[in-house]
Amino acid sequence: MATLDALRLLTDALRADAALAGLVGDRVYTVLPKDKTFPLIRVVRWGGDLDTRIPGLVWLDRADFQIDAWATRQLQVYDVARCCVEALVERLPGRRPGGVVTASSVTSLATELDADFTPVLHRARIQATVTAHP
């Protein structure tokens, strides 16, 4: 039986999204690089569950993600966050290399200043749930 890597499916889809690429290029990561060019996006899977109603068969993966975007200007991080939300909700569902996304929803969006960087950067934090199968 085919397996599904929901994190790879999501990051590949975000990198391939033309509108998002117009803002961040291919700078969609699962781990931040040492040398960073902004704006950029980091995707982390922090939870979720598998549909195990049929013993021995895992079909649907309901994956919870945190998607962070950083930029040097507030308007820039808002544009990246808005485009990311649109990509998740409007363009992600459907057949993709690596699986089929049956549902995608954004559960929260927050923006803040991130003092972990010098100079301080603007940050958007998106919580999303993606349901997919092989």
Walkthrough of the structure:
The protein is α+β, with helices and mostly antiparallel strands. The chain has one domain (6-133): STM4215-like (2-Layer Sandwich), CATH 3.30.2000. The chain contains three helices and six strands; from the N terminus they run H-H-E-E-E-H-E-E-E. A six-stranded mixed beta sheet has the order 1-2-3-6-5-4. A hairpin with a 6-residue loop joins strand 5 and strand 6. Helix 2 (18-24) packs antiparallel against helix 3 (74-91). The relative contact order is 0.23. The model has no long low-confidence stretch (mean pLDDT 94). InterPro entries: Gp17-like (IPR021508). This is DUF3168 domain-containing protein. It holds the Pfam family Tail_completion_gp17.
